[in-house]
From TrEMBL:
Keyword Cell membrane: yes
Annotated protein name in UniProt: Transport permease protein
Bilayer-crossing regions: 40-60, 72-100, 125-148, 154-175, 187-207, 245-263
Ranges of residues in domain ABC transmembrane type-2: 40-270
Broad class of the protein's primary localization: membrane
Record's bilayer topology term: Multi-pass membrane protein
Family: Belongs to the ABC-2 integral membrane protein family.
Native organism: Kribbella koreensis
Pfam families: ABC2_membrane
Keyword terms, alphabetized: Antibiotic resistance, Cell membrane, Membrane, Transmembrane, Transmembrane helix, Transport
Length: 274
């Protein structure tokens, strides 16, 4: 390949990347404006994780007395789990915004415009990621007020926030894909609950899998939500096992990238079915 040809290829590639980033910025701004015009929705998404943390914290606090339980504080064990549970449950509703766009005809206009399909997906996920960050900070604040303490320092909190965003991105992408494929809010809600509830209870969000039936412990090994909880707890601990945290974090990142790619391709299926 000649030098001139190589420069042209590089220039076109840069232009495509710039276009994607520009489109993503516009889509992100659109969804952020829509979010902050709904104060009731903001209040609900912030209050919900607080209720979960306080409710489950009181309901299951007696598990620390069970033989084999290694943590002295259940609220400290539970808080990172509630962070991941919140990211999972909140992201399950992502697709409802896509369905609203379909019903108003906005989605069809978007897909006939020059906006990149990946930007349509990424912009919406980034805007929802801001909510995930706020929810994570709130859960930690409530956990701290309830007595949870962590020795992992700032790095531990940063890792937890990043991991929660990966959970939100992965299952937000999946929710958007289901919306594009079914185009029905009822189907989306049903499928979301069918996926999120088993993933929640077959993980270490509320209970160490070692204390659960053997099949639950086995299922947890292949559960992306459990990978996230393990990564966060390791990063927050006084003596983190960074090998375990890195392995589970990479599993989660790989899962997120695969789901994001496949979900973006759902736009093609939607366009063919319209």
């Amino acid at each position: 390949m000649s030098t001139l040809t190589a420069e042209r290829v590089a220039t076109r590639s840069a232009a495509r990347r710039g276009g994607f980033l520009t489109h993503t910025g516009f889509i992100t701004g659109r969804w952020l404006r829509a979010q902050y015009r709904s104060p009731a929705l903001i209040a609900f998404t912030l209050v919900q994780p607080a209720i979960w943390l306080l409710l489950f914290g009181q309901l299951f606090k007696g598990v620390v007395a069970l033989p084999g339980w290694s943590d002295s504080s259940y609220i400290a064990f539970l808080t990172p789990g509630i962070v991941m549970m919140t990211a999972l449950m909140t992201s399950g509703w992502n697709g409802t915004t896509f369905i609203a766009d379909m019903e108003r005809g906005v989605m069809d206009r978007m897909l006939t415009s020059p906006v990149r399909r990946g930007a349509l997906m990424a912009g919406q996920l980034i805007s929802n990621g801001t909510t995930t960050v706020i929810q994570t900070i709130l859960v930690f604040a409530i956990g701290f007020a309830a007595g949870a303490r962590y020795d992992g320092g700032v790095l531990g909190y940063v890792v937890t926030i990043v991991v929660s965003m990966l959970v939100g991105t992965a299952f937000g992408s999946l929710s958007n894909a289901v919306a594009l494929l079914t185009r029905q809010q009822e189907a989306l809600i049903g499928i979301s609950q069918f996926i999120s509830l088993p993933l929640t209870f077959m993980s270490s969000i509320m209970l160490d899998p070692k204390l659960a039936p053997h099949w639950v412990a086995v299922a947890a090994r292949y559960n992306p939500v459990d990978w996230a909880a393990i990564t966060a707890r390791q990063a927050l601990s006084a003596t983190p096992d960074w090998t375990s945290a890195l392995h589970h974090g990479l599993y989660l990142l790989t899962f997120t990238l695969i789901v994001g790619y496949l979900s973006t391709r759902a736009f093609r299926t939607y366009q063919r079915s319209v």
